Amino acid sequence: TDVRGRSIFGTFFHAPAPGALEVLHEAVVSVDEKGTISRVIRRGEPGYEPARASADVRLSDGCYLLPGFVDLHIHAPQYPQLGQALDEPLEVWLQKYTFPLEARYANTDFAQRSYEALVADLLSHGTTTALYFATVHQEATRLLVDICLEKGQRALVGKVVMDDPATCPDYYRDDSAQAALADTRAFIDYVRAHPNNGESRVLPVVTPRFIPSCTDESLMGLGKIAAECDCHVQTHCSESDWEHGFVIERHGVTDAESLDRFGLLTRRTVLAHGTFITGPDMDRIAQRGSAVAHCPLSNVYFSSAVFPLRAALARGVRVGLGTDISGGPSASLFDSVRMAISAARMLEIGVNPDLPPEGRGRPDSRIDTATAFHLATAAGGDALDLPIGQFTAGYHFDAMLIDTRVPEGTLGTVAILAESSPEDILQKILYLATKPNITKVWVGGRGVTP
Ligand code: GUN
Ligand code: FE
């Protein structure tokens, strides 16, 4: 059901800053006709009683509202191979499995089936915004835009650029740098002029796959397009030893510095992984206002290392969370939240029991649950420079309703401990919620799940 022009009475969780969980207990959130939050009234504030009495929607006991999740890095075409081929290194996985799969999106019937299933799955997992890599194909990438608009997901979509014949297979690459740049411009125009995109729910993204797959000519041209068209940018950055080393070998500098030279580090740039970024890289990324999409599940398989999240945050880098489908084997950002906490903990304690405890890990690396929740919501919005991810006036009402009392799964254990605090309940939601608990999802105040 639509909540545009209506007000909702219930308990809301959000985390506007790292480590800062806010519980809006029995609050009233009003949504305007455009789907933007117009007013948040907490218990005891002036006007609370009349607002509560006149609320249009009342949440039942055991139900809570969370901001919709922001998936900051996902490869839409890789959805069909989710859970497969996770036993190879990145460079082998790309050539042996991933490029052949992505090449199949030349077939728009295949693309349609795959993309429809993906977008529906993400929405029902509470992912209200996704920053997508598509494929090199113009038609299939436009189809992904159409499907997001039709299903109501907020999305940022990029036609992938990979034009270097030295690294990309003949059967799957742009014909030339010029063709890749012309295609990127045509795609940007398509998204911006789309008849169903009046609210700009879908945005175009300049998308060099990563430096190893692009020529200098295409990288330079994409930097220009990003500036001229004032577009978001996404790419992979220092993901693995192989990839990090490849760029240093080719350009004599790290990914971050090289991308910066091409004009590709902007306030609206999202760098996937960043596992091996250096201290100076972090400072550079922070200074440009760019963000890192932390993909803790994928990093286990293809980075073979843990992203130093706390260090990056301390140096002022914006960081959000990505599933990195299908590098990460889950469509649910809940799994990324859980893994972000586990990975940070493993980085702190170290994993090699042969070493003495004091030599095992990296101090000050753990994060708390509220920080992981922040990364999946408000931080993702901030990374994208969009007003999403929190229940604050002026932000889009993108939200999910969690019902802890459905019989499926184990989140029902909340009700056994009657004394659970709201903080306890949020922890249980983040760790135990599964699809059946996500009973309603809204984007811009519009219901987007059946
Ligand atoms: N680097 C370049 N392409 C990819 C991809 O599809 N997935 C991951 N994880 N890393 C990449
Ligand atoms: Fe990726």
TrEMBL record:
Enzyme class: hydrolase
Pfam families: Amidohydro_1
EC number of the protein: 3.5.4.3
Assigned keywords, A-Z: Hydrolase, Metal-binding, Zinc
Associated pathway: Purine metabolism; guanine degradation; xanthine from guanine: step 1/1
Domain spans labelled Amidohydrolase-related: 64-446
Cofactor mode of binding and number, as noted: Binds 1 zinc ion per subunit.
Signal peptide: none
Transmembrane regions listed in the UniProt entry: none
InterPro entries for this protein: Amidohydro-rel, Guanine_deaminase, Metal-dep_hydrolase_composite, Metal_Hydrolase, Metallo-dep_hydrolases
Cofactor(s), by name: Zn(2+)
Family label: Belongs to the metallo-dependent hydrolases superfamily. ATZ/TRZ family.
Protein name according to UniProt: Guanine deaminase
